Amino acid sequence: MKPDAHAALEQYRVRSGPLGSTAAEGNNGAFIVPHNGLTFVVIVSDGEGWDHVSISLPKRCPSWSEMCHFKDLFFEPHEVAMQLHPAESEYVNNHDFCLHIWSPQNRRIPTPQSILVGIR
Questions:
Q1: Is the pLDDT of residue 68 over 90?
Q2: Cβ 54 vs Cβ 100: under 8 Å
Q3: Chain-centre distance of CA 26, in angstroms?
Q4: In total, how many domains does the chain have?
Q5: Confidence of residue 117 (pLDDT cuts 50, 70, 90)
Q6: 37-52 b/e with 16+ CB inside 10 Å = b?
Q7: Averaged pLDDT of the chain
Q8: Region for 114 from its dihedrals, namely left if φ exceeds 0, alpha if ψ lies in -120 to 50, beta otherwise
Q9: Is 103 exposed, middle or buried (0-12, 13-18, 19+ CB in 10 A)?
């Protein structure tokens, strides 16, 4: 995760209530972020060995391009980040229209060769 990813979004940080935080928390906190005429709730954390960004909308899941936008805001271009499908026994759903981006800290996520994904 970019060390100062929050800086570009600081004006959108939630500062009060249960999700409230300050700039002192860095990349940890909730942000209400406008993008392409929509308002996204973005919750970011970088603890427990993981970088994590959750992105939600009130009435639908974020699209692939919207998820890419937020991945680019928080992660360097060379960083691999993932949307994770855990074992069914580990499912948690606190919001029907929320998706997550994950990246382990200090570990490389293995990826398949690009030809296995599609033709460039």
A1: yes
A2: yes
A3: 14
A4: 1
A5: confident
A6: eeebbbbbbbeeeebb
A7: 95
A8: alpha
A9: buried
Query: What pTM did the predictor assign?
Result: 0.91
Write out pLDDT tens, residues 17-47.
Answer: 999 999 999 999 999 999 999 999 999 999 9
- The CATH number of whichever domain residue 14 belongs to comes to 3.40.1720
The CA-CA-CA angle for residues 28, 31, 37, to 5°, reads 150
Name residue, tokens 């909308």. Answer: 57
Number of neighbouring beta carbons within 10 Å of residue 57? 17
For 86, phi and psi rounded to 5 degrees? -75, 175
Q: In terms of residue numbers, what domain contains 82?
A: 5-117
